[in-house]
Amino acid sequence: MLAAATEAAETLAAEGIEATVWDPRCVKPLDETMLDDARAHQAVVTIEDGLTDGGVGSRISLELAAAPVEVEVLGVPTRYLPHAKPDVILGELGLDAEGVADAARRALARAR
Fold first, then answer.
1. 76 confidence band (pLDDT: 50, 70, 90)
2. What is the pTM for the complete model shown?
3. pLDDT confidence band for 94 (50 / 70 / 90)
4. What is the residue-averaged pLDDT of the chain?
5. To 5 degrees, how large is the angle CA 96–CA 52–CA 111?
6. Cβ 74 vs Cβ 99: under 8 Å
7. What percent helix, strand, coil does the chain show, rounded to 5?
8. Cα 6 vs. chain centroid, distance in angstroms?
9. Which end of the chain offers a freer environment for a tag, N or C, measured as fewer CB atoms within 10 Å?
10. How far is CA 75 from the centre of its chain?
11. Rounded CA gap, 64 and 81, in Å?
12. What's the whole-number mean pLDDT along residues 80-102?
């Protein structure tokens, strides 16, 4: 997911939207420096190729609940997914660079 996030950040930068990319290495404990940085932003998009339920995105969302930050959690829903090549599935779920950039735009629109 780091490649998709980095590419999305480059796309957003070309549009004049500054984005910070973090690669959390673990869910517990979450990196406090990362969380402090996230609180300084208007919007946060989390991306994971695992289930959204109970994943790192939901943990980050919980940690940021009291902050004035719009959070969008991207990941795999807890439902049956038809078989396809991984890139196709990730694209359909919005977990490619285009989907991540779109999620960032939506979150920023809600924050404004």
1. very high
2. 0.92
3. very high
4. 95
5. 70
6. yes
7. 45, 15, 40
8. 11
9. C
10. 8
11. 29
12. 96
Rounded-to-integer distance, Cα 78 and Cα 20, Å: 28
| Per-residue pLDDT, 97 | 97
Percent of the chain with pLDDT over 90: 94
Environment class of 96 (CB within 10 Å of its CB; exposed 0-12, middle 13-18, buried 19+): buried
* Token pair recorded at residue 77: 């829903």
47: DSSP letter: E
Type of residue found at 80: Y
**Residue 26: predicted pLDDT:** 80
For residue 91, give the amino acid letter: G
Look up residue 21 and give its DSSP letter. -
Half-sphere exposure for 23 (CA within 13 Å, toward CB): 6
